[in-house]
Amino acid sequence: MGSGVRTDMSDLSPTALLTCHGKQVALEGPLAQAGYAVFTVNDFDTDSLGTFTGEIAREGTMLEAARHKAQLACELSGARFGVGSEGSFGGDPWFGITGWGREVLVWYDAEKGLEISAFVQGAETNYANKCVTNLEEALSFAAAIGFPQHGIVVGQPDQAVYDKSCSDLQAFHVCVNKALEHGPVDLSTDMRAHRNPKRMQMIARCAQDLATRLATHCPQCKAPGFGAHAPVLGALCEECHMPTRQARAVVFKCVACGFESENHLRSEVKAQYCDYCNP
């Protein structure tokens, strides 16, 4: 499997990124390592494709939204290569209590119609919201989420006061006090990338995964994007040697020609993962 980090920076391929929220700072370094120079297309309002605060609903899945942005980046810029980014946030997948972030990046080759994606998720997010009834509660929430480094949205689109622009404590005081005149106030973390350093860090992690995939070429057709596609279950229990639901290998697949190869992970796992020894 051909892969490697690019060191010659003189012949990077121009790659359009559709963003109004400064995401290029998270993508430029990793994608340069894979041979792609990111430039921004920022004269298109990406909020028109959906907002975290609900004024405009996103159409389709995260992957579909990122794909659309990557294709739009190519169309608007005339570049052969484009990148689209999309995130979603909510409770953790187990109990729904801890904040949980998901990010996807799609790289698109308009000439070949080729798409390569990367996805990351985890609890490294400051996604949170709270309904407050006084300024003290509001200030406590602001401190907990790291305001003003991390942005705050005051109110909701259907409320009397709705503001995403607070950039310091003085502005926050004024905005919250004005909102409290109408009753309890909903506060939430601003999940737009330029107002959310933790989200930007997760985008950078996703960009690194995408860069690794772009730098890994198919052994058969040499196209970029050869990478993990699906697990192969059936690692044996080290005690009873029966197959478990743990992965014994992972299938790598080319998105261009469909070539597949199986990469061995392990032959056995501990009995705690066995449905026979530990039902």
Provide the fold topology.
Layout: E1 13-18, H1 24-33, E2 36-41, H2 62-77, E3 81-91, E4 99-109, E5 114-122, E6 129-132, H3 135-145, E7 152-154, H4 169-180, E8 185-189, H5 197-214, E9 227-233, E10 236-237, E11 247-253, E12 260-264, E13 268-269
Parallel strand pairs: 1-2, 1-3, 10-13
Antiparallel strand pairs: 3-4, 4-5, 6-8, 7-8, 9-11, 11-12
Helix pairs in contact: 1-5
Q: What would you note in describing this structure?
A:
The protein has 279 residues and is an alpha/beta fold. It has three domains: 13-125 and 193-216, Maf protein (Alpha-Beta Complex); 129-189; 228-273, no CATH class. Helices cover 24% and strands 28% of the residues. The chain contains five helices and 13 strands. It has helices spanning 24-33, 62-77, 135-145, 169-180, 197-214; strands at 13-18, 36-41, 81-91, 99-109, 114-122, 129-132, 152-154, 185-189, 227-233, 236-237, 247-253, 260-264, 268-269. A five-stranded mixed β-sheet has the order 2-1-3-4-5. Strands 6-8-7 form a three-stranded antiparallel β-sheet, with helices on one face. It has a three-stranded antiparallel β-sheet with strand order 9-11-12, with no helix packed on it. A hairpin with a 4-residue loop joins strand 4 and strand 5 (114-122). Helix 1 packs parallel to helix 5. The radius of gyration is 22 Å and the shape is flat. Mean pLDDT is 92; it is low at 1-7.
What can be said about this structure in brief?
It is built from five helices and 13 strands.
